[in-house]
Amino acid sequence: MRECLSLIILLAHAGHAVASASLPVQQATPTAHHLYVATTGADTNPGSQLAPFRTIQHAADTALPSTTVHVAPGIYPENINTKRAGSAPARIRYLSDKKWGAQLIGSGTEATWTNAGDYTDIVDFDISGSGRLGILNYASHTRMVGNHVHHLMVSGGCTGSGGAGINNANFNSSDDDIEGNVVHDIGVPGKCSGVQGIYSSNLRGSISNNIVYRVSAWGIHLWHAANQVLISNNTIFANGSATMGGGIIMGTGDSPGSPVLSNTSVINNIVYKNPAASIVQFCYPGQQCIGKGNCIANNLVFANGGPIALRNGAALNTIEADPQFVDYQENGKGNYHLRKTSPAIKQGRPVLAPATDIDHMTRPRHMAPDIGAYETH
Q1: CA 216/CA 185 separation, integer angstroms
Q2: What pLDDT, on the 0 to 100 scale, is given for residue 4?
Q3: d(Cα 327, Cα 250) in Å, to the nearest integer?
Q4: Parts of the chain with a pLDDT under 70
Q5: What's the pLDDT score for residue 25?
Q6: What is the pTM of this model?
């Protein structure tokens, strides 16, 4: 309990990115500039609402700080590379005008969307492709919110480079938020140990309100220089196989080589029916990569292939019971809201929980938040 309380104090003083988790990106301050993209447009157009661009890439090459790029529904066969940076008061926002209406389909073996611009928002897109990565983020202060990242084919095969639906890949970046995304069918479950749902390698940031399932290895994976990360209110099921992967894994290792995972919070998550592990801390043999101040609390774990396994500290207030989804289906076609009788209702840890759920509904509705991505109403 002391470690969890210490973590809350530390994050509050550090101005942790959880503050952005409580504010949906859609409610951000309106930007000064607007560009428009539609499948009926042309890149020779001015990018106005009446004369939109044809490609998201052209809009990205044109955007200035405090620009919103509005993307109309349609199919965009693009591999996007966003390099221009915003700033704290003047972010650059890429917004699908209809949730999941703008469908990006990448080609080749790498990422459908690569971002290297700080203070960038990527919101509500449908992202798939033949490669090993959906959103590959190298920047700091990036928000990836409400996207549907799915059916990445990993056509280049299992390699040491791995893959992920969403990947914070720069060890020197920080404060990136992955909020309210649905990530699934990333590779083939049990085929590639390096292919994850959500993968984060850097300092701070939040991974909250996501639904992750049918991933080759781990639903959520922290590694490399991960530290002071918040993982809260995610729903994670059916990832990996009996011999590979699982729900959530935390550790540090490989390049850059020296960080120790500390002051990281894993709270209010549902981890269900992953054939191998549930929630695990991991280090290479002979290494001590798990430090102090980590808080693993108020998680519901059930029907996984293994229990919570920590190298340092103990899990608090774990619920080991069926979450009672309205309609659980492993293929993702079910309803993952909670039944009124669910043991996850009102059992979450209030502090550090996001202030809204995956549907942007207010949380908590009761004395304490529900566990998982959905708040019961």
Answers
A1: 8
A2: 78
A3: 29
A4: 1-3, 5-29
A5: 43
A6: 0.95
Residues in contact with 314: Cβ distance below 8 Å, sequence separation at least 6, in sequence order: 296
pLDDT at 182: 98
Q: Which of 297, 301, 196, 310 is nearest to 251 (CA)?
A: 310
- Can you tell me whether residue 53 is helix, strand or coil? strand
279 neighbors 309 (Cβ within 8 angstroms): yes
Q: Could you report how far apart the first and last alpha carbons of the chain are, in Å? A: 30
DSSP assignment of 38-50 equals -TT--TTS---SS
pLDDT of the residue at 10: 56
Please say whether the dihedral angle defined by the alpha carbons of residues 60, 61, 62 and 64, taken in this order, is positive or negative.
Answer: positive
| Alpha carbons 244 and 191: distance in angstroms, whole number | 8
pLDDT of residue 30: 80
Q: CA Rg, the chain, in Å?
A: 19
What does the angle CA 84 – CA 89 – CA 93 come to, to the nearest 5 degrees? 45
Contact 134, 166 (CB under 8 A): yes
Strand order in the sheet with 148-152: 74-76, 102-106, 126-129, 148-152, 182-186, 211-215, 235-237, 270-272, 300-302
What is the predicted pLDDT for the residue at 28?
A: 59
